[in-house]
Write a structure and sequence with these properties.
mainly alpha; five-stranded mixed beta sheet; 25 helices; globular
Length: 572
C-alpha cells in the first residue's frame, strides 16, 4: 500500500533524528587521524587548509569550533549533522519519486549507514559536506521544474566546487543532463554559469585570508596564480594519473569491492534492476546515473591516497538513486515490518566497522609524542598522522608551544618555510642562512624552472642538519618508517628510541630517558581501518624498541618501566 507524501512528516523527522542519534552515539570524542587535526586548526583559526582549501567548510565550521565545549567534538558533530541532512534528503527524494514511505526509509538507512557515509559522519572531515552537496545536486536535477530552480542548481554546483573537486563527477553530467532534458537555451545557460561563478567565488576567501595574515595559510594564495595552484592541488599531482597500469587495475578491483560492501551486497540486484528499468523507460536519466559512476570511478582509480573511499561518493549517491527506482516496482511488498528489521540489520552489520565511540587514540598518539620532550626541543615529523594532531594540540589547546615541531615533507613548499619563519622566529634566525640557500633551489622547483636535483637535495639535507645542530641536545624525530633523507643527515649521530620518538645526539651519553609511567596511550579496542591499525602496530613496535635499547644498554630501571608500559598499552 502506498503512503501519500503529503501526509504528516512525523516518520521522516523521527528517522532523521534516529540517524543523527546513531551518529552521535558512535561519534569520535576527540581527534582522529590523517587530516583531523589540521582541518580543526584551519576551522578554529579561519585559516587555509590543504588543497583545495575548503573555504565554505572552513567558514561554517569556524562557528561550530567556537561553540561551548571542546572544539574538535563540535566539529565531529558538524559532520554528523551534514550526513544526517543528506540522508533526510535521500529519504524525501525517494518518498516523492515512489510515494512509498517504507521504500524511502530503506533508502535513507542504506545511504546513512553505508560505511562510506557513516565513517565520515563521526569525525571532522570535509567529505561530509561533499556528500550533502552531491545528494542535493542529484536530487534537484531529477526534480527540476523552473528557471529559478535551474539558477539555484547552478549556484549550488559552484559552491560545491569550493568544498571538494570530486563533485565534478556529479556536477558535469548533471549540467549536461539538465540542458538536454529541459532544452535550455544558450542565453539561459550563460546566466546559469554566472550563478556558478558566484558560488565558486567563495575561493577568494583564500586570497583574503592569506593577505589578512591567516596563521595557517597553505599554498600562500596571495594572488590568482597561487590560488589556482592551490585549488588544482598542484603539489598532489604526483599521485594522480601517473600510476602504472597494474596499480590502476588493482585500484579498480579494490574500488569495486568497496562499493559492493557499501551496497550491503544484497542490494546489487536492485542496482541492476533499476538500471534496466531506466534504460527501458527513461534513457536520458539512465545515461545520467550511469555516466556519474563511470566518470567518478575512472578518475578515482588513478589516485592513490589513504582516504580514497570518500572519492567514490558520487557513485554511491547514483547507486542509491538507482536502487530506489529498482525497488519501486516492489514497493507494495516492502511493508514496514520487513523494512525496519532490514534497516536495523544494516546498522548492526556496519556498526563495528564504522563506530569511533570511545576512540581517543588520535589525541593520545599526538600527546605521547609531545608531552615529555624537554623544554625548547625540536621535533621533526616524517608522518602526517603525527604532525596533524600535534597542530591541534599546539594551536587550539595551546599545549607545548615551546617545542619546535616541523613536518619534514612540507619543507619542500615555500609557503611552509614562510610559516616556520612566522611561527618560530628565533629558531628561524639561527638557521636562516641554510634555509635561504635551499629556498633559491626550491623556488626553481616550485615554478618548474630548471634545477639540479643533486643541488636541491644537498641543500635540503644541509638545512635539516642546521635544524638539528641548532637544538643538538634536544633534537628528536618522529619516524614510523625508514627515511632516506634523515639517513643522510648527520649519519655519525646516534638515533636512540625515547618513547615514541628517536633522540638524535652526537654522544650516547647525552641520552635522556622518560617517565614511562606517565605515557597515557592505549591500543584501540576497535581497530576498524588500515591507518588506525598501522599506527597501533607502530606504537607497539616503538615500545619494544625502547625495551630492546634499555636491555642492551643495561638501563634496568628504565627497562622495567618500558615493559610495564607495553603491558598497559596492550591492555594485558
Amino acid at each position: 500500500m502506498r503512503n501519500s507524501s503529503a501526509s504528516k512528516p512525523y516518520p521522516e523527522i523521527i528517522l532523521t533524528a534516529v540517524i543523527l542519534g546513531t551518529y552521535v552515539f558512535s561519534l569520535c570524542p576527540t581527534l582522529y587521524l590523517i587530516d583531523s587535526g589540521e582541518l580543526a586548526v584551519a576551522s578554529h583559526t579561519l585559516g587555509i587548509a590543504h588543497p583545495t582549501g575548503y573555504p565554505l567548510y572552513t567558514m561554517i565550521s569556524y562557528f561550530f569550533a567556537h561553540l561551548p565545549g571542546e572544539a574538535i567534538f563540535n566539529l565531529n558533530l558538524l559532520s554528523a549533522l551534514f550526513c544526517a541532512a543528506a540522508a533526510c534528503i535521500v529519504m524525501l527524494t525517494a518518498l516523492k519519486a515512489t510515494g512509498s514511505r517504507s521504500l524511502a526509509v530503506l533508502a535513507a538507512c542504506l545511504f546513512a549507514f553505508a560505511p562510506m557515509i557513516w565513517r565520515i559522519a563521526v569525525v571532522n572531515e570535509v567529505y561530509s559536506l561533499t556528500a550533502l552537496f552531491i545528494v542535493l545536486i542529484v536530487s534537484i536535477a531529477l526534480n527540476l521544474r523552473s528557471r529559478r530552480g535551474f539558477y539555484f542548481l547552478m549556484y549550488l554546483i559552484g559552491m560545491a566546487f569550493t568544498n571538494h573537486v570530486i563533485v565534478f563527477a556529479a556536477a558535469l553530467p548533471v549540467f549536461l543532463y539538465t540542458i538536454i532534458r529541459h532544452k535550455i537555451k544558450f542565453r539561459l545557460v550563460m546566466s546559469g554559469l554566472v550563478f556558478s561563478a558566484l558560488g565558486i567565488s567563495l575561493y577568494y576567501y583564500l586570497i583574503g585570508r592569506t593577505i589578512g595574515g591567516a596563521h595557517i595559510a597553505w599554498g600562500d594564495t596571495y594572488n590568482l596564480p597561487r590560488l589556482i595552484w592551490h585549488i588544482t592541488g598542484r603539489q598532489y599531482q604526483v599521485w594522480m594519473f601517473s600510476l602504472p597500469i597494474k596499480e590502476i587495475v588493482e585500484n579498480f578491483g579494490r574500488g569495486m569491492v568497496m562499493l559492493f560492501r557499501n551496497m550491503f551486497w544484497i542490494f546489487l540486484l536492485p542496482v541492476f534492476i533499476g538500471y534496466h528499468r531506466l534504460f527501458t523507460t527513461d534513457k536520458l536519466r539512465f545515461s545520467l546515473l550511469l555516466v556519474i559512476p563511470l566518470l567518478n570511478i575512472a578518475y578515482t582509480i588513478n589516485y592513490s591516497i589513504p582516504d580514497v573511499e570518500s572519492y567514490y561518493l558520487p557513485t554511491l549517491v547514483s547507486f542509491v538513486t538507482v536502487i530506489i527506482i529498482g525497488l519501486s516496482h516492489f514497493s507494495k511488498w516492502l511493508k514496514w515490518y520487513l523494512v525496519v528489521p532490514l534497516a536495523f540489520l544494516i546498522v548492526v552489520f556496519n556498526y563495528r566497522s564504522c563506530s569511533q565511540r570511545g576512540n581517543y587514540f588520535g589525541l593520545e598518539f599526538a600527546d605521547a609524542h609531545l608531552e615529555q620532550l624537554p623544554t625548547g626541543s625540536l621535533l621533526l615529523c616524517t608522518y602526517w598522522d603525527i604532525y596533524s594532531p600535534i597542530m591541534y594540540l599546539r594551536q587550539v589547546k595551546n599545549q607545548r608551544k615551546d617545542v619546535i615541531v616541523i613536518d619534514k615533507e612540507l619543507l619542500r613548499r615555500t609557503w611552509y618555510i614562510k610559516y616556520l619563519n612566522k611561527e618560530y622566529p628565533e629558531f628561524y634566525a639561527q638557521v636562516k642562512n641554510q634555509v635561504d640557500l635551499f629556498l633559491v633551489e626550491l623556488e626553481k622547483f616550485e615554478h618548474q624552472k630548471f634545477y639540479d636535483p643533486l643541488v636541491i637535495q644537498t641543500r635540503y639535507v644541509v638545512m635539516l642538519e642546521a635544524f638539528i645542530s641548532a637544538r643538538e641536545d634536544r633534537a628528536f624525530v618522529a619516524m614510523p618508517f625508514p627515511d632516506r633523507d634523515l639517513q643522510s643527515v648527520l649519519p655519525q649521530y646516534h638515533r636512540l628510541p625515547r618513547g615514541l620518538n628517536y633522540q638524535i645526539m652526537a654522544s650516547e651519553s647525552d641520552y635522556s630517558g622518560i617517565d614511562y609511567g606517565r605515557v597515557n596511550i592505549s591500543r584501540p579496542g576497535n581497530i576498524n581501518d588500515e591507518r588506525l591499525d598501522f599506527n597501533a602496530v607502530y606504537v607497539d613496535q616503538m615500545i619494544r624498541n625502547n625495551i630492546a635499547y634499555h636491555r642492551s644498554a643495561g638501563n634496568f630501571l628504565l627497562l622495567k618501566q618500558a615493559e610495564e608500559w607495553l603491558i598497559r598499552y596492550r591492555g594485558n
